[in-house]
Specification:
Number of strands: 22
Strand order of the largest sheet: 1-2-3-4-5-6-7-8
Largest sheet: 8 strands, mixed, barrel
Oligomer: single chain
CATH architecture of the largest domain: Alpha-Beta Barrel
Helix content: 10-25%
Radius of gyration: 21 Å
CATH superfamily of the largest domain: Glycosidases
Shape: globular
Number of domains: 2
Distance between the termini: 33 Å
Length: 414
């Protein structure tokens, strides 16, 4: 990624991916938390179907792509998305506008990765305040830039924070504080929070329980487009394994007719055209596959229910619009969404959400950033639980936010 406002940081590459033949004190208590192509309609059914998360080839570069360049990349190289530099204190991107992005979407049906270039180290950029409070303020600024580009909040749209390798390796603890503040603010503003950086930084952020919705790792093993998938990058192990990983595998190479670009492969949710939404996808549900458990993407519509394995508890999306938990026939908890709720889904970012008829959320467990989580009927309650068994939310205790590995009540984390 070459879009910093000052000197570019080092990209650290260590062996650990598939070979080329694969081608076939972190919180701040004072912060509240060139082939011609026909013009296409990104709202057409075939593009709506693309909301299903699959492996997609993407590019990015500092200067805005023209429609002509995007068409070449689309037709000749199978590119399906591009990064978009929306701003930030160390942003070196140029020319990116809402109108330009909308024109690319109309011409190609592409989706997008909005990029906010955050604070870096002093050797990279003049903006180098890697504190939680600065991260939080920059997260709010990122949300405002998203709105300026036509990506409205509460539509299940992501924005990625660019944390260069030098910023992390120069001070891992400070970079973690900054990323945590940014992620928390972006979530509070109604967006998915992705982070771009070194695989080692992303590993650390994951293990430090920074609530990142998806990781975009920069690790250059190639010098052009390759038929690789995000899973081919082994440097992140089993982290970010649930449709929430991208890999930038080649940097700054020339493409005839399109100039110099970086190449990525992704398996994650991308942003729609400006003014669009991902909410229809978020509200889609699969029927539960096992007793007593909701996995990512599973949920209930009105009139449907999920029984515990012992048969004593039942979770139901009632006809009156509330998600209701009963124990031996007696109601013990409800989402209190009478008249509004039409479905309940455990989203792939770890939130259990009740949606209304317009696919807008009317209840949420506020547990985004834990893509490995599941919901289960346990004892007398309903709980959302991380993959390591840590409770994130329960019908009896409310929201529990993970910060520095310790579960605390959300109000105390703010």
């Amino acid at each position: 990624m070459r879009a910093l406002g000052a000197a570019f940081s080092i990209v650290v590459v260590v062996a650990g991916c598939a070979s080329d033949d694969a081608t076939t004190d972190d919180t701040d208590p004072t912060i509240d938390e060139p082939t011609a192509m026909p013009t296409v309609d990104p709202n057409a059914p075939q593009y709506a179907a693309a909301l299903r998360i699959t492996v997609q080839r993407g590019v990015d570069r500092a200067s805005e792509l023209s429609v002509h360049e995007a068409r070449i990349l689309h037709a000749d190289h199978g590119v399906r998305w591009t990064g978009v530099y929306i701003g930030g204190p160390c942003n070196g991107g140029s020319g990116w506008t809402r109108g330009g992005v909308a024109a690319i979407a109309k011409a190609t049906g592409w989706r997008f990765m909005p990029i906010y270039v955050g604070q870096q180290s002093a050797g990279i950029c003049g903006a180098h305040d890697l504190s939680y409070s600065r991260g939080h303020a920059d997260g709010i600024a990122a949300a405002n830039r998203m709105k300026a580009f036509g990506w409205e909040p509460h539509r299940d749209i992501p924005v990625a924070l660019d944390v260069e390798a030098g910023a992390y390796f120069g001070n891992p603890a400070a970079a973690t504080r900054y990323a945590r503040g940014w992620v928390n603010a972006v979530h509070a503003q109604g967006y998915r929070a992705y982070v771009y950086g070194s695989p080692y930084a992303l590993d650390h952020f994951h293990d430090a329980r920074v609530r990142i919705d998806a990781a975009w790792a920069a690790s250059y093993f190639y010098s052009g487009f390759r038929s690789v998938t995000p899973e081919h990058l082994s440097q992140m192990g089993s982290r970010y394994k649930h449709d929430n990983r991208a890999w930038q595998y080649a940097g700054n190479f020339h493409v005839a007719g399109a100039g110099y670009v970086d190449a990525s492969t992704s398996r994650l949710l991308l942003a729609p055209r400006p003014g669009g939404t991902n909410r229809a996808r978020a509200a889609h549900r699969e029927l539960p596959a096992a007793c007593g458990v909701l996995e990512a993407g599973e949920g209930l519509a009105r009139g449907e229910s999920l029984a515990s394995c012992d048969g004593h508890a039942s979770l139901a999306m009632s006809d009156d619009g509330s998600l209701t938990l009963s124990r031996d026939g007696a109601v013990v908890w409800t989402s209190e969404t009478d008249g509004a709720g039409t479905s309940a889904v455990l989203e792939d970012d770890g939130e259990l959400v009740v949606f209304d008829a317009d696919n807008e959320p009317v209840f949420t467990t506020q547990t985004s950033g834990f893509s490995d989580a599941h919901a289960e009927l346990a004892g007398d309650g309903l709980a959302v639980i991380a993959d390591d068994g840590t409770p994130l939310w329960s019908s009896t205790a409310g929201v529990q936010v993970i910060d520095d590995g310790e579960p605390v009540i959300a109000d105390e984390a703010e």
